[in-house]
What we know:
The structure holds two protein chains of two kinds. Chain A is an all-alpha fold. Helices cover about 70% and strands about 0% of the residues of chain A. Chain A has helices at about 10-15, 20-35, 40-45, 75-110, 110-125, 130-140, 145-155, 160-170, 175-180, 185-195, 200-225, 235-240, 245-250, 255-280, 290-300. By secondary structure, chain B is of the alpha/beta class. Chain B is about 30% helix and about 25% strand. The radius of gyration of chain B is 21 Å and the shape is globular.
Amino acid sequence: MTEKVPSTARLLVRNFAGNLTGMFGLLVIFLIITSAIFAEEISGYNPNLMDGMSTSLSPSTDHLMGTDQLGRDVFSRVLYGGRNSILIGITASFLGNLIGTVLGAIAGYLGGKIDTVLIRISELFMTFPQLVLVLIFVTIMGQGVNNVIIIFALTGWMTTLRLVRSEFLSLREEAFVEADRAFGFSKKRIIFRHLLPNTMSPIVVAFTINIAIYIIAEAGLSFLGLGVPVTTPTWGNLLSAAQAPVVVEQYWWLWVFPAVAIIAFVTGVNFVGDGLRDVLDPRQRTNAKNKTFAATLREKLFGSRKQTIE
Amino acid sequence: MSKEIVFTEPLYQAKGIKKYFPVTGGVLRRKIGEVKALDGVDLDIYRGETISIIGESGCGKTTLGRMLAVLQKPTGGELSFDFGDGLKNVVGLNRTEELAFRRRVQMIFQDPYTSFNPRQRVGAAIDEVLQVHGMKDPEERFSRIKESCEMVNMRVEYLQRYPHEFSGGQRQRLAIARCLAIRPELIIADEIVSALDVSIQAQIINLLRQIQRETGLSFVFITHDVAVARYVGHRIAVMYLGSVVEILPAGALPENAEHPYTIALLSAVPDMNLQGKKKEIVLQGEVPSPIDAPSGCAFSTRCPYVMDICKTTRPVLRLAYEADSSHQVACHLEKPPIGA
Lengths: 310, 340
């Protein structure tokens, strides 16, 4: 009992460091984000600079991923595109989660009529196919990075609401909530200072997974020409070049590289999400097999290491 | 008990408290009945006394505790508290008044394992209570926390730990300290020892008695353990099926009791003194369901002395026959069943 017990955050870091797939995902994400941030320094080309002398070149040492029909460097476009795609994914996921968390907390804690109304609204949104909903919003609001972010946030808060609501429904029966009320704590304080921190782990997991979903959604939308205007490079816009059969057949570098970037980032994010779920909440461990595999691999690589948590 | 308790002006008064929970059924979730958890409870709590509330499972003692702490609103009846200038209603107060009330009336809960936020250090939890109640000076808060920890024999250094690092007994002491920190006038303790080992129970109970003696604050001690109730309380309120059937001095023997249920309850406690144990009521049957409780006296279905009036008219609390003012009973019998 006298031994100093590490804080939750430190436990989290320590346990996550032991999660092989999670760490791998983190590494991939880190590499992609860093290269997107330092796009200017890394690529050496302006992504929008058209060079009439070098159109449709296949990958070479000059142009690592080749050039497109307008002579723009694909590598730099993938890097800059990553900036926008990741920005859309993270911001939309954050905003959507924020809406879902706040509404879910209110619905779950207060219950009654407010709960019924919020749940019904979320069901209304969910019964609509999301793509149709997105198309409607795009038509109303027009294209653009900001609009896409807002649209994703507006159409993607329902699962978080249900998640947070159900957590709150069980948490509000705990004696400490009752005690808080007996001490005269305000509802706001109970919801946001006491209950929300206890709901953080599923929210964090939902946040990471949603990033992946939105990046793919952006790609799909831009592929259809409904997402971000073509003048702004995103992974989805780069992919939409593959709409022409001739590109698919002859200019493979135009679509393979952005596709690989998307797959790598999304896989990385999902790995991190799964890792966080394992570390944050042992009850929700869905993939026990994967876990034991990671554990055995870790043992083989680093020798058996006892994890002292308690 | 150092100070004499004055049984004239109550600190807290419950009058005809009712709590009905709707029972819904069918596809349309229509109301098909009511659980009468509390059906007209009268209770006066005086300054400086500990009143124990006993009764079997489901008799409404926990619901009564929650009513007194105004964690739920009663379906009917009045709750009034003496803020220093006479009794004042406490249900449906505005925010400022509510805080003033909650500062004076505190509650400790049964389960010590969930009564602290698992992600908050216990010291911060106590501190937060003081902050909510408007203590701005950190030094002052710290000295207050230190003082309340000393009262429950808890080392101040332990306060930076998380709740899961404590045992059940320690946590219950911390819960007491958290209540004491804001210096309440009344603490409602709901089955606070029933989740603990017997040895720890004794420790907590003695601690409560000591705190009561030193501070002179009032306690409502809810328990199902008759021995504990008698040891801790000055008075005992006996509950049966949602109503208080008798309030008697803690030292009273089964022979002094005037309600048949109280006699049965008190005489059911195992006693070392076999000679002294003469008359005893052994109850037959089961407690009726609170959904369709008897219309007259709640106990009328099992009472060995039942009369016609018992089945139709509900008895109210009145002074007992051989009574000082602290002994009240709700019974139609014209003389005590097995008195002297």
